[in-house]
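## Example record

The block below lists the input lines for one assembly entry, exactly as stored, with component labels intact.
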Amino acid sequence: MIVSGIMAQALTPTEDPAWLLRETGYELLRESTFETRFAISNGFLGVRGGLATHLGACRTILPRTYVAGLFDTPTPDSTVPELVPAADWLQVRILLPDGPMMRCPNRSSRALTLDMHRGILFTEARQSCNAPLDVYLRTLRLVSLDARAVGMQLIELQIENGVSDLTLEASFGPTDFELAPERAEPDLRAWRTWRSSRSLAIAAAASLHVDGVERAPTARGDLMWSWSWTASPGQVVSFQRIIAVTRHHSVDVHSGARARRELAAARALGWRGVIDRHEAAWAERWRSSDVQVEGDAAAQAALRYAIFHLNGAVNPADPQVSVAARALTGDDYRGHVFWDTEIFLLPFYTLTWPEAARTLLLYRYRTLDAARAKAAAMGWRGALYAWESADTGAEVTPAQTVGPDRKILDILCGSQEQHISADVAYAVWQYWQATSDEAFFCQAGAEIILETARFWASRAELEADGARHIRGVIGPDEYHESVDDNAYTNVMAQWNIERGLETASLLRERWPGIWNDLSERLGLDEVELKQWREAAETIAIGFDPETSLFEQFTGFSALEKIDLAAYAGRSVPMDVVLGRERTQRTQVIKQADVVALLALLPEIFPDAAGEKNFDYYEPRCGHGSSLSRALHGLAAARLGRPETALRYFRQAAAIDLADTHVAIGGGVHIAALGGVWLTAVFGFAGLSLRPDGLAFAPQLPEAWCKLEFRVHWQARQLRVTIDRTAQSLRVVLEKGSAMAIYIGEERYLAPAGEALALSLVHIRIQKIHGTPPFSPL
Amino acid sequence: MIVSGIMAQALTPTEDPAWLLRETGYELLRESTFETRFAISNGFLGVRGGLATHLGACRTILPRTYVAGLFDTPTPDSTVPELVPAADWLQVRILLPDGPMMRCPNRSSRALTLDMHRGILFTEARQSCNAPLDVYLRTLRLVSLDARAVGMQLIELQIENGVSDLTLEASFGPTDFELAPERAEPDLRAWRTWRSSRSLAIAAAASLHVDGVERAPTARGDLMWSWSWTASPGQVVSFQRIIAVTRHHSVDVHSGARARRELAAARALGWRGVIDRHEAAWAERWRSSDVQVEGDAAAQAALRYAIFHLNGAVNPADPQVSVAARALTGDDYRGHVFWDTEIFLLPFYTLTWPEAARTLLLYRYRTLDAARAKAAAMGWRGALYAWESADTGAEVTPAQTVGPDRKILDILCGSQEQHISADVAYAVWQYWQATSDEAFFCQAGAEIILETARFWASRAELEADGARHIRGVIGPDEYHESVDDNAYTNVMAQWNIERGLETASLLRERWPGIWNDLSERLGLDEVELKQWREAAETIAIGFDPETSLFEQFTGFSALEKIDLAAYAGRSVPMDVVLGRERTQRTQVIKQADVVALLALLPEIFPDAAGEKNFDYYEPRCGHGSSLSRALHGLAAARLGRPETALRYFRQAAAIDLADTHVAIGGGVHIAALGGVWLTAVFGFAGLSLRPDGLAFAPQLPEAWCKLEFRVHWQARQLRVTIDRTAQSLRVVLEKGSAMAIYIGEERYLAPAGEALALSLVHIRIQKIHGTPPFSPL
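Predicted structure tokens for the full assembly:
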């Protein structure tokens, strides 16, 4: 029997399957995977793809809604804040006279459909186990990209067969163990965190229609509604719930007022209006950031999925928060922010959504004092950012963790993984180069660059050999701790100091007033700048001109070499196979380290040094981090090895999308998703920034006939199309004034509002050596 | 300030530190370890050693009280029942005007003391973080070994400094997600499971005294009490709560009545009376089962800890349940029962607590129909026990699990790990040999042995080579699946069929009426018995007379040999290091397999075959199971290698007691604890059963000056003392008539009520070869 309710259209996903991710069936052990994979987020609220209706007791799966920035420590003893989940606002029970309606093994159907175009998760189920009824259930959930406080749930229940008394009960899950209750009223509940003085309010409204006619609730409690009636064949039941969530950074008696206002605004739009505005916001995001690949449906799907999560991870209106290692999709890493944001995510935002990039960098500006305090506490000057950062910017890396063998391990990253400071500076500089956002640069960015440069100049100590050394650090390769002169760290430090000097010159020249104020406030004088210059010149970077190799750190080349091919069958990372102690004595690398340098600063690798370093380090890498493969892909593409790059691209995409593992229960690997986009745009299209425009060095793999995407550059918007079959590159400058486009070293002018079509046939793409992509303006 | 309240004596642990396990301080990551290690249990109720007072929000640690036999499936889709935790009945909050009193990092002290002699967990804390008060808090908790439905909690709060309004609130933790609430009254709550039709009731009473004067509760709810008063220095606050828990195997409206009766009985005794009876019951258990070691304090502590948990794991009054792989101390393995019970635990119960052994074997008798159904469903005759068994005896091994690499793995044990049937028969026979419990044998044991023998006779199929083969099984070494002719399985099968034939002869001879009834009921005739005889004679057991080696299974010796020494640094089991597929192609063994055979049936290893097999298989064993080391220790001691045995003994003891790992959060490894006792009594003392008495073959390690223990044998009780220094063995027959004691093959008579002292100096201890310890009566 096909019936059609008032919500029929809203409950129908986009037609084009290329925009959909779909999963049917139900498998308990994979459920946490699906909850992550089908998570939706708007950068303020994140909702995992848990089941839409309550199944009776089910202690394996906890539904999760995250509120960005709602941190608290889990116990009074802990110094490590964690993102506290909010009440589950999707809770619905369908009650029969004998108890809750239950899913039925083998007989109940279930489907999840993530509509990436519309930013909506749909579910569908037939539940007919213990029911005297046959019902067909469709649900929709969204967190609005238009009004980020707002979440909405629609449920349509079609009674296909049977007659029975029925109750639909909508309530909120418990949070009292996590949050202390403050207010409970029929339309509002408010909580505060136990220790961090944050508060949370949720206002909600719900209604139910049977065959288009609204029914009054039979029972009503605090954020609880229930409706009872006699169900009969052909009935269509339409349920809607709209919520508004607010977070406050103090225990605020008025917290409920704002949630109520947000709710009132959403209710004024009605559920159709909420959907319309949300979809319009998503359409705008897709217009700016979609990447299209022809010839490789899997790559297309991977890119869509990556871009969907990247757009959902950030809230450009909230500089209080940044993007966590698992975004707002899971418990792993407790909502903490790592270098992942600056190195793996910022390029996407900078080039497709500068407002979002700016907000993320303002989070680092807001936490600059905490970075200064960390450096000072460790005896250095300037700013050393927290390796793991939560709401205040204080270092919140746990001191210990439980290893895969359930042994307690000390975590040294919080004190030793210092490259984070250069990574933040790198993202600031890249944003500045790509946007020319003077207000940001003068008010925030320059200060970050100067303070991180100052940190490195004080950190690299002059020793008897006449060189400056950075001892006792951890590089990106975390298998090796307390190492000296990690190439990635030292080269990035050198680069950071150079950008500090460049920033100083630039400010002095173009904005002398700002320079005077800032240098006075920072106590930065000529003597110190001279010392920076000297530090940048004398810092040991471990490059051997004879072999063209960077040594990853002092003594690396003398370590035991392990043939990783012999461990191909392993099911766990190499440090677990060999044990932590032994791994430290080998050349096994956790993740791209010198290769990361090649991905970020290709210009510092002279001649064939890029190839040489890649060929040396790639076989030594165990890829024990989800960050590793994308950077290998990016570097390989840049080196003119698109098929190798494609292999890494697929492996990076598989982390969250392949079904062979269930490792993603703790949330999507947002950095790997950022890396998927990076490999496509910075790798295969070979994009790099120039002072007067953008350069491209296309290296499409065989399977990719065509690659098309949009980027922003200095208040312009370009559509870039690379056609492998036609051997052409086409740039349409859709917004903004004329700019330069480089293919290799050939310079072309892209005129405003017009298309620039270039043939790639006779152009020898020069591999990127010695060409600073970020040269001074 | 030292004050002394009415509970002072009760709250003071036993003086002798050899009876105490103590932990001070608080370390979040180790908390789950302590919760397991300090668990207490009486075989019906199990309570983990969670914190006694609520800390505010704390989402890492869930307190757990288990009720034996309270199984339910976690979701409607699941076919795997799990032990459902009951409400946390220890919940207490101490509320100050500003909120709950909280522990303070670095400033609050905390100590846990497990008094194994008294069967009580004590905690001690000074909490002075956010309080205007200095308080000293002592708590006691027990689950009564005298009345197993009863739990009791005492708290004494001494106000050392400060004046403040104070509230002590005692309540019950939520269970509503796990269990459906049925009744809630001030003194009683009742729940039912969502799907399995079990019910649970808890009745409780609580009271509070300030300076010895009882106060009426200021507020009262369902199983909730709170008292408010103004605390001032010198006050001693005494809180007591007694609970009574009942489980019903149906949804029973009267379930509360029994809980109320049990509670009333406990209240009539008063808290002192409850403690007295509980301690008397423990004293009786220790009198029967304590093992004393002189010269090795660590071994003494390990044995005490093992015996404490073994005595707490079983309820001789309840044949509805058996001992789970983690007893009642943790979530791992969901409360399921494995071969662990019969092979690792039963010897302890059989020899120190025959009533408990009998009950555990009656659980197998109760589930014999389910074992018959499993065999029939797979196309065989007789009884094939469930590899994992819960309340009904149906096979409940999960079909899949998530591996250490978070890959979903198929679990084949539920269909292939069939040796369980022979293991059950082994335990029945051992019990029968040790107790001569005719009633049990005739009414239950014989039928188990006959039906399992019948299974093997139908399972081992005659093939063209004239031998019977058992194909497609998993032995104890679970790294190798779908193997043919696993030596452990086939030899145990052969032994089981032989015991079946022996049982048939015995019944026919001694209890012809019973034989007639039983053989008729089972349809067991001469033709079938002849077929059994032929099956036992022709079954392939893989023994090569040339090398004296059993081949673990057909083709094992041709597999790749791995040098395990090269993987000494590994932090995870070998199947994780090599990957599951590769491990299957190597000789790496998960756990004692042929060595298990050597431990269980030493008499089938002719001449030096024991040594040869041990020396061949030991270096191939990765010890990927907690069961492995104890059996290696037992076998090594029997082979006259006490120092090797001691190494394994210590490693087995370290599983739950060493602090290097935190692997025990999921519960104590009760089989390894059983193995610790086994290694001492069956290994170092060399105990074995003879038709007319007990044999000993002492092999004490250097460090053990003296070993003393008690055992039951056929309605007698013996105290056995082995003195290494004096080279003597002393047996005191404390109860029962004269019996034989063997040293090697020398036979002595232990007279009733007297001591038999034997010198070991001139007795050559014959290693146990070819001497059936279980010869026919």
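Residues 255-289 of chain A form the longest helix (35 residues). Chain A touches chain B through 56 residues (CB under 8 Å).
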